[in-house]
Amino acid sequence: MKFKKAAALGSTALVAFGLMSTPVLAQEMQISGRTQVVDKLQISDQIQISDNIYMTSSALDGTAIFSGVGLDISGTTANAVGSVIANNTVTKIVYSIKLQEKSGSSWIDVKSWSGTKNDFSFALNENYTGTKGKTYQTYAEYTVYAGSNSVNLKHTSDPKTCN
């Protein structure tokens, strides 16, 4: 998988992308009101949005889709984020995002958000009060529809520990 880094940002605010309907994805991204040029972003490239947020590109019948998940921790506050951004040929996004706590070698769901959005974009930005010394990750599953066709996308953030 190729890796491209966007601008380093101090915020994990919602991300908006300008997408083209061709197999080569957007040459520009708008992040927190600024436009960042990305050279020849191809399907399956990964973009680092901030230190903790990554977006991965995929395609559905030629429709470009960015999807991702992330986790920021400040003290004991865990901020889970997830998003899907595509062009307007996408008609529905079904999402399930879980904040998970590490227990031994397993991950236990401590908070979850799920639903359906009849639109071509979706974003979630939720906080959870964790426990000092515990490690958390965000896990997301998205099903993105363009008419009767769909693609399933799964993401897991890097684990972070509350301090």
Record keyword descriptors for this entry.
mainly beta, 5-stranded antiparallel β-sheet, disordered N terminus, Immunoglobulin-like, 163 residues
Number of helices: 0
Any guess at the CATH architecture? Sandwich
Q: Return residue spans where pLDDT drops below 50 for at least 5 consecutive residues.
A: 1-45
Cα gyration radius (Å): 16 Å
Largest sheet: 6 strands, mixed
Number of strands: 14
* Structural shape: elongated
Order of helices and strands: EEEEEEEEEEEEEE
Helix content estimate: under 10%
CATH fold-level topology: Immunoglobulin-like
CATH class: Mainly Beta
What's the structural domain tally?
1
Reading side by side through the largest sheet, how are the strands ordered? 1-5-6-7-8-11
Q: Please identify the structural class as seen in this structure.
A: mainly beta
Q: Averaging pLDDT over every residue, what do you get?
A: 74
Q: State the end-to-end distance.
A: 32 Å
Strand content: over 45%
Give an overview in words.
- There is one protein chain.
- The protein is mostly beta strands and 163 residues long.
- It has a single domain (3-161), classed as Immunoglobulin-like (Sandwich).
- Helix content is 0%, strand content 63%.
- The chain has a 6-stranded mixed β-sheet with strand order 1-5-6-7-8-11, with no helix packed on it. Strands 9, 10, 12, 13 and 14 form a 5-stranded antiparallel β-sheet that branches.
- The model is unreliable at 1-45 (pLDDT under 50).
